[in-house]
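Sat 14:20. Reprocessing the chain from the morning session after the first attempt stalled halfway. Input below, unchanged.
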Amino acid sequence: MKPYALFGVAGLLALLLGGALLWQGARQDAGPARPAGGDFVLNSAEGAVDTLALRGQVLLVYFGYTHCPDVCPASLAAGGQALNALTPDERARVRLLMVSVDPERDSVEHLKRYTAFFHPAMSGVTGTPAQIAKVARAYGAGYLKGPVQADGSYAIDHTTATYVVDRDGKLAAVLDLGTPTAQIVSTVRKYL
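Finished this time. C-alpha coordinates:
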Protein backbone atom coordinates (compact mmCIF):
# COMPACT_ATOMS: atom_id res chain seq x y z
CA MET A 1 0.00 0.00 0.00
CA LYS A 2 1.33 3.44 -0.90
CA PRO A 3 1.71 5.81 2.11
CA TYR A 4 -0.56 8.46 0.65
CA ALA A 5 -3.36 5.92 0.04
CA LEU A 6 -4.07 5.71 3.79
CA PHE A 7 -3.98 9.46 4.51
CA GLY A 8 -4.48 11.00 1.09
CA VAL A 9 -1.93 13.42 -0.36
CA ALA A 10 -3.11 16.32 1.82
CA GLY A 11 -3.03 14.15 4.95
CA LEU A 12 0.46 12.88 4.16
CA LEU A 13 1.71 16.44 3.62
CA ALA A 14 0.16 17.50 6.94
CA LEU A 15 1.80 14.53 8.68
CA LEU A 16 5.20 15.36 7.18
CA LEU A 17 4.85 19.05 8.04
CA GLY A 18 3.80 18.21 11.59
CA GLY A 19 6.78 15.90 11.99
CA ALA A 20 9.12 18.57 10.67
CA LEU A 21 7.69 21.12 13.10
CA LEU A 22 8.05 18.70 16.02
CA TRP A 23 11.65 17.99 15.02
CA GLN A 24 12.41 21.72 14.71
CA GLY A 25 10.78 22.36 18.09
CA ALA A 26 12.89 19.63 19.68
CA ARG A 27 16.03 21.20 18.20
CA GLN A 28 15.06 24.63 19.56
CA ASP A 29 14.38 23.16 23.01
CA ALA A 30 17.88 21.72 22.99
CA GLY A 31 19.21 25.25 22.60
CA PRO A 32 21.97 26.47 20.31
CA ALA A 33 25.13 24.43 20.03
CA ARG A 34 27.71 25.59 22.56
CA PRO A 35 31.04 26.65 21.06
CA ALA A 36 33.76 24.11 21.71
CA GLY A 37 36.72 26.48 22.06
CA GLY A 38 39.96 24.71 21.32
CA ASP A 39 43.69 25.09 21.16
CA PHE A 40 45.36 27.77 19.12
CA VAL A 41 48.78 29.23 18.44
CA LEU A 42 49.07 33.01 18.13
CA ASN A 43 51.97 35.44 18.50
CA SER A 44 52.93 37.59 21.46
CA ALA A 45 55.90 39.88 22.02
CA GLU A 46 57.60 36.95 23.78
CA GLY A 47 57.02 34.59 20.84
CA ALA A 48 54.36 32.05 19.96
CA VAL A 49 51.70 31.29 22.56
CA ASP A 50 50.45 27.73 22.17
CA THR A 51 47.48 26.99 24.40
CA LEU A 52 48.27 23.27 24.23
CA ALA A 53 51.50 24.05 26.10
CA LEU A 54 49.45 25.85 28.78
CA ARG A 55 47.64 22.71 29.96
CA GLY A 56 47.36 22.73 33.74
CA GLN A 57 46.56 26.44 33.77
CA VAL A 58 43.17 28.13 33.69
CA LEU A 59 42.95 30.52 30.75
CA LEU A 60 40.82 33.63 30.52
CA VAL A 61 40.50 34.43 26.80
CA TYR A 62 39.19 37.82 25.72
CA PHE A 63 38.70 39.06 22.14
CA GLY A 64 39.21 42.80 21.69
CA TYR A 65 41.54 45.48 20.37
CA THR A 66 43.75 48.19 21.81
CA HIS A 67 41.95 51.15 20.22
CA CYS A 68 38.66 50.14 21.84
CA PRO A 69 37.36 53.18 23.71
CA ASP A 70 35.49 51.57 26.60
CA VAL A 71 34.46 47.90 26.57
CA CYS A 72 37.96 46.42 26.30
CA PRO A 73 39.48 48.58 29.03
CA ALA A 74 36.57 47.72 31.35
CA SER A 75 36.85 43.98 30.63
CA LEU A 76 40.62 43.88 30.96
CA ALA A 77 40.52 45.95 34.15
CA ALA A 78 38.06 43.43 35.62
CA GLY A 79 40.38 40.60 34.59
CA GLY A 80 43.34 42.39 36.17
CA GLN A 81 41.41 42.94 39.39
CA ALA A 82 40.49 39.25 39.47
CA LEU A 83 44.15 38.27 39.01
CA ASN A 84 45.09 40.60 41.88
CA ALA A 85 42.45 38.98 44.10
CA LEU A 86 43.98 35.53 43.63
CA THR A 87 46.76 34.26 45.87
CA PRO A 88 50.25 34.25 44.30
CA ASP A 89 50.07 30.45 43.97
CA GLU A 90 46.68 30.66 42.24
CA ARG A 91 47.81 33.51 39.99
CA ALA A 92 50.77 31.41 38.81
CA ARG A 93 48.25 28.88 37.43
CA VAL A 94 46.11 31.42 35.52
CA ARG A 95 46.75 33.18 32.19
CA LEU A 96 44.69 36.02 30.79
CA LEU A 97 45.05 36.26 27.00
CA MET A 98 43.72 39.16 24.98
CA VAL A 99 43.27 38.03 21.38
CA SER A 100 43.44 41.12 19.17
CA VAL A 101 40.80 41.24 16.46
CA ASP A 102 42.65 44.20 14.90
CA PRO A 103 45.90 42.81 13.49
CA GLU A 104 46.25 45.83 11.21
CA ARG A 105 46.95 48.16 14.14
CA ASP A 106 47.83 45.86 17.04
CA SER A 107 51.44 44.78 16.77
CA VAL A 108 52.73 42.34 19.36
CA GLU A 109 54.85 45.11 20.91
CA HIS A 110 51.85 47.41 21.18
CA LEU A 111 49.77 44.57 22.68
CA LYS A 112 52.47 43.95 25.30
CA ARG A 113 52.47 47.58 26.45
CA TYR A 114 48.67 47.74 26.42
CA THR A 115 47.99 44.56 28.39
CA ALA A 116 50.76 45.32 30.92
CA PHE A 117 48.79 48.42 31.90
CA PHE A 118 46.02 46.14 33.22
CA HIS A 119 48.20 43.41 34.74
CA PRO A 120 51.80 42.24 34.16
CA ALA A 121 50.61 38.60 33.88
CA MET A 122 48.27 39.44 31.00
CA SER A 123 49.40 38.67 27.44
CA GLY A 124 48.25 40.15 24.16
CA VAL A 125 48.27 37.79 21.19
CA THR A 126 47.52 38.20 17.51
CA GLY A 127 48.00 36.54 14.16
CA THR A 128 46.84 36.74 10.59
CA PRO A 129 43.23 37.71 9.91
CA ALA A 130 42.51 34.07 8.97
CA GLN A 131 44.06 32.73 12.19
CA ILE A 132 42.12 35.17 14.34
CA ALA A 133 38.85 34.41 12.53
CA LYS A 134 39.36 30.67 13.09
CA VAL A 135 39.99 31.11 16.83
CA ALA A 136 37.04 33.49 17.21
CA ARG A 137 34.72 31.03 15.44
CA ALA A 138 35.87 28.20 17.71
CA TYR A 139 34.95 30.24 20.78
CA GLY A 140 31.75 31.70 19.37
CA ALA A 141 33.17 35.23 19.44
CA GLY A 142 32.18 37.72 16.77
CA TYR A 143 33.67 40.94 15.49
CA LEU A 144 33.06 43.33 12.62
CA LYS A 145 35.24 46.20 11.44
CA GLY A 146 33.31 49.43 11.01
CA PRO A 147 33.74 51.98 8.24
CA VAL A 148 37.09 53.73 7.99
CA GLN A 149 36.80 57.43 8.83
CA ALA A 150 38.50 60.26 6.92
CA ASP A 151 41.36 60.28 9.45
CA GLY A 152 41.92 56.54 8.95
CA SER A 153 40.42 55.50 12.26
CA TYR A 154 37.76 52.84 12.66
CA ALA A 155 35.95 50.95 15.38
CA ILE A 156 35.39 47.22 15.67
CA ASP A 157 32.19 45.83 17.11
CA HIS A 158 33.05 42.66 19.02
CA THR A 159 31.84 40.13 21.54
CA THR A 160 32.36 41.37 25.08
CA ALA A 161 32.57 38.04 26.91
CA THR A 162 35.59 36.48 28.57
CA TYR A 163 35.99 32.75 27.92
CA VAL A 164 37.21 30.49 30.74
CA VAL A 165 39.24 27.48 29.62
CA ASP A 166 39.85 24.81 32.25
CA ARG A 167 43.17 23.07 33.02
CA ASP A 168 42.35 20.33 30.50
CA GLY A 169 41.90 22.84 27.67
CA LYS A 170 38.09 22.68 27.59
CA LEU A 171 35.90 25.76 27.30
CA ALA A 172 34.31 25.69 30.75
CA ALA A 173 32.47 29.01 31.19
CA VAL A 174 31.66 32.31 29.56
CA LEU A 175 31.72 35.47 31.68
CA ASP A 176 29.66 38.39 30.45
CA LEU A 177 30.80 42.01 30.48
CA GLY A 178 30.15 43.45 33.91
CA THR A 179 30.63 40.18 35.80
CA PRO A 180 31.70 41.22 39.32
CA THR A 181 35.31 40.57 40.28
CA ALA A 182 34.27 38.20 43.06
CA GLN A 183 32.37 36.06 40.56
CA ILE A 184 35.32 36.00 38.14
CA VAL A 185 37.56 34.89 41.02
CA SER A 186 35.16 32.18 42.18
CA THR A 187 34.80 30.91 38.60
CA VAL A 188 38.57 30.73 38.16
CA ARG A 189 38.99 28.95 41.51
CA LYS A 190 36.34 26.43 40.51
CA TYR A 191 38.56 25.29 37.64
CA LEU A 192 42.00 25.53 39.30
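The two ends are 63 Å apart (CA to CA).
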